[in-house]
Specification:
By secondary structure, the protein is mainly alpha-helical. The chain is 55% helix and 7% strand. Bound molecules: tryptophanyl-5'AMP.
């Protein structure tokens, strides 16, 4: 039996934060041995909103290095940069031509992002989920481990695949979103009604994977809390519930046992211990990250091998698509 194909990615559109780790990367790492893994740095997605070209280039490598520093092992998983494989853009165009406008208009993330966008809203931002569908479908992906905010995009990917298959023949495997509900939506430390986000202009809302210990301490200390004193998960206590999810995900302890441990404790004591948990969790990742960034040949090789080994896979799908459509 061959292993299920897993595909996932992160856009290098800002600093990676603990939400990206908890919602996505930790699941990639956990199941690495059992799956056939493909992890992409989706730089073509980043340019759907304006980017400084030099910053983008550096962030792209930063994200790749962070995948490895968080535990993605290039012996077990293939890591590559999306723009290194032109098949993604080519399949996206074809899928654009089978996707009804109305489907894209329903996408909630587009609605949110277009409201926040101060400059012109591009066709690329609107079409973004089609490019994501192309990423996933090119590799005949079975599973897409993501946070909750990407659920709708994986569902539309299935819809697009089904539409194509029913019109032109069975070319695409239908993928499934893998969402682990604990930690699938880490919220901002400053505003529990909003998710922790790379593009949040309020840097205090997110703990970044490369934040130094002092900054982590300050962000956790200043995190908003709810009224009352109990350290307990409750839908009326979204801020404390969020801090508990972070504590649990990064320490490996069950939420129940953390709640018990802090029964009768103050928010201050809980936050102090949480900041230690986060700092200790980040230390080895940051150490490994620095080593990887110092050895650029190593990172180049990993990325090159990743994209080289995947091109034959994506090309096979693209050829089948072209054949089915009568292109060429
Ligand atoms: P992106 O770059 O916004 O986020 C990367 C991953 O992190 C998860 N995530 C979160 N999880 C929990 N809490 C949060 N606050 C949080 N913020 C982000 C996201 O759900 C995601 O899993 N469109 C995608 C990138 C993409 C992709 C793909 C993903 C492009 N092609 C193909 C999977 C498969 C995105 O913008 O994710």
């Amino acid at each position: 039996m061959s292993k299920p194909v897993v595909f996932s990615g992160i856009a290098p559109s800002g600093n990676l934060h603990i939400g990206n780790y908890i919602g996505a990367i930790r699941h990639w790492v956990k199941y690495q041995d059992e799956k056939d893994n493909i992890f992409c740095v989706v730089d073509l997605h980043a340019v759907t909103v304006p980017q400084d070209p030099r910053v983008l280039k550096d962030k792209t490598r930063e994200v790749a290095a962070l995948y490895l520093a968080c535990g993605i092992d290039p012996q077990k998983s293939r890591v590559f940069i999306q723009s290194h494989n032109p098949d993604h853009a080519q399949l996206a165009w074809i899928l654009d031509c089978v996707t009804p406008m109305g489907w894209m208009q329903r996408m909630t993330q587009y609605k949110d992002k277009s409201v926040k966008q101060k400059e012109v809203i591009t066709v690329g931002l609107f079409n973004y989920p089609v490019l994501m569908a192309a990423d996933i479908l090119l590799y005949q992906t079975n599973e897409v481990p993501v946070g909750d905010d990407q659920k709708q995009h994986v569902e539309i990917t299935r819809d697009i695949a089904q539409r194509f298959n029913s019109k032109y023949g069975e070319v695409f495997t239908l993928p499934e979103a893998m969402i682990d509900m604990s930690g699938a939506r880490i919220v901002s430390l400053q505003d529990p009604s909003a998710k922790m986000s790379k593009s949040d202009p309020d840097k205090k809302g997110s703990v970044y994977l490369l934040d130094d210990p002092e900054t982590v301490g300050q962000k956790v200390r200043e995190a908003v809390t709810d009224s009352g004193q109990e350290i307990q998960t409750h839908e009326e206590k979204p801020a404390i519930s969020n801090l508990l999810s972070i504590f649990s995900a990064l320490s490996g302890k069950e939420i129940n046992s953390i709640e018990e441990e802090y029964q009768g404790s103050s928010y201050q004591k809980f936050k102090q211990d949480l900041s230690e948990v986060v700092v200790e969790f980040l230390k080895p990742i940051q150490r490994r990250y620095r080593e990887i960034r110092e050895d650029s040949t190593y990172l180049d090789n990993v990325l090159q091998q990743g994209s080289d080994s995947l091109k034959s896979v994506s090309n096979k799908t693209l050829r089948a698509v072209q054949e089915a459509l009568g292109l060429g």
